[in-house]
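S2.1 Query sequence (ILVBL protein)
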Amino acid sequence: HPMPAVPLGRIGVAAVTAGPGVTNAVTAVKNAQMAESPLLLLGGAAATLQKGRGALQDIPQVPLFRTLCKAALSVRAVRDIVPTLRRAIATAQEGTPGPVFVELPIDVLYPFHVVQKELGGSKTPRGLRGKLVQW
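Output structure tokens follow.
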């Protein structure tokens, strides 16, 4: 009986930055898939409101990992971080072990004023977008 790559009940965890950090992890994730090793890959992502609008390092990360991982998830709200991570860890370990990808957009991880500064804006946008950002 061969020894598992990761001791039973344990999971490998890696955290990478958005864009190039995520794409540079593809080979490692494929190796984890082939070795049936439970792995949780946490990837940064552009702010939710900037998705698909040409934001820095905004690429379709979740679809990229759907074919390599048992699950590829994106957290949309702070209250969803813990349940999503719990689900991801369970998924990585159950059945045939393997990698799971969880995308964490910057606006879910940091307070609004930090994200606003990072995006280079000091005043709140007007209109519907401004109301969404303030909300």
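The longest strand covers residues 39-45. The chain has seven helices and four strands.
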